[in-house]
């Protein structure tokens, strides 16, 4: 990588968060509890609300496991962070907040996602498209605290316009910005996504020191290997099949666009985006007291 990438914050690699992962098998999602080693403060990153879409039935098994962990370890939840508006699972953020507290945060470009998908789902004027459903909107370079830990928001768009990587001490929680080296990178063909932008974001992320630990949001265990959720900047630069140092932006864009053209929509994209762009809040009850999700025919 010859290009200079500006990092709008100062790293402190001496800070090492205590990280516990939780795995949702339906969506192949890793959620994380990130604890300050010097206090009981923690953050929860990319939580999952379970849904049986065919039956229209919600459950809270995964979220309850996180809540039980927080309570058993007497933790104080400072933040409930979404790295982006996920298209493959529903967020459990409001459910968790109601039970153990915490502020719900996402990148400030959520308003772009809300504007785009507010039209797709015909949300009308009652749906505010300013991100106000969230407690905190992060800008590039913003800092926040988890006890004595300092977290930094790093804008990494391309998969979606609102993607943020969260760099906490020696660790980075990357959302869908990058996968394990043998799986490459996420798609860039959702509305507002862009392969060239994603390449730039990934190489900005990979301009962090080689020893920075990367916590991955999804793993699909290619070629039958065991699930993995941890990598490093150095490992990605050497081995990532899509964006290693030897692969140019032009090569990446050609590969990514060709690959994305073969991919089906995620099975849960319709319920996920409706809920997640509203900070995980479910639709208001209808006149009969029941809640309904919309399916926009030929809308995606």
Describe this protein with a few key phrases:
Metallo-beta-lactamase, Chain A; 14 strands; 21% strand; alpha/beta; 6-stranded mixed sheet
Question: Mind explaining what this structure looks like?
Answer:
The structure is a single chain. The chain is α/β, with parallel strands linked by helices. It has one domain (18-272): Metallo-beta-lactamase, Chain A. Helix content is 23%, strand content 21%. The chain is built from seven helices and 14 strands. It has helices spanning 61-72, 93-100, 110-120, 195-205, 233-239, 249-260, 269-276, and strands at residues 18-24, 29-35, 41-45, 50-52, 57-59, 76-81, 103-107, 136-138, 143-146, 149-155, 164-168, 171-173, 213-215, 230-232. A six-stranded mixed β-sheet has the order 1-2-3-6-7-8, with helices on one face. Strand 7 (103-107), helix 3 and strand 8 form a beta-alpha-beta unit. The longest helix has 12 residues, at 61-72. The radius of gyration is 18 Å and the shape is globular. The mean pLDDT is 96.
């Amino acid at each position: 990588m010859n290009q200079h990438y500006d990092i709008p914050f100062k790293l402190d690699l001496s800070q090492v968060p205590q990280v516990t992962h939780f795995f949702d098998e339906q969506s192949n999602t890793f959620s994380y509890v990130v604890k300050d080693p010097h206090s009981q403060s923690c953050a929860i990153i990319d939580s999952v609300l379970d849904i049986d879409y065919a039956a229209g039935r919600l459950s809270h098994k995964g979220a309850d496991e996180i809540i039980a962990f927080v309570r058993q370890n007497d933790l104080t939840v400072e933040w409930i962070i979404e790295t982006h508006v996920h298209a493959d699972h529903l967020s459990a953020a409001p459910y968790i907040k109601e039970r153990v507290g915490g502020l719900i945060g996402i990148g400030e470009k959520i308003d772009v996602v809300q504007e785009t998908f507010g039209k797709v789902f015909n949300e009308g004027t009652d749906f505010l498209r300013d991100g106000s459903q969230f407690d905190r909107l992060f800008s590039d370079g913003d800092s926040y605290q988890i006890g004595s830990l300092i977290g930094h928001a790093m804008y990494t768009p391309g998969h979606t316009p609102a993607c943020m990587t969260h760099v906490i001490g020696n660790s980075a929680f990357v959302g869908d910005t990058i996968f394990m080296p043998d799986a490459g990178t996420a798609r860039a063909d959702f509305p507002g996504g862009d392969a060239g932008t994603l390449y730039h974001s990934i190489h900005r992320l990979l301009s962090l020191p080689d020893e920075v630990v990367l916590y991955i949001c999804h793993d699909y265990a290619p070629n039958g290997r065991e699930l993995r959720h941890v990598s490093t900047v150095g490992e990605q630069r050497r081995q990532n099949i899509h964006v290693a140092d030897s692969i140019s932006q032009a090569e990446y864009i050609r590969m990514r666009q060709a690959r994305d053209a073969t991919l089906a929509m995620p099975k849960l994209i319709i319920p996920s985006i409706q809920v997640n762009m509203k900070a995980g809040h479910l639709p208001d009850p209808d006149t009969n007291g029941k809640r309904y999700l919309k399916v926009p025919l030929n809308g995606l």
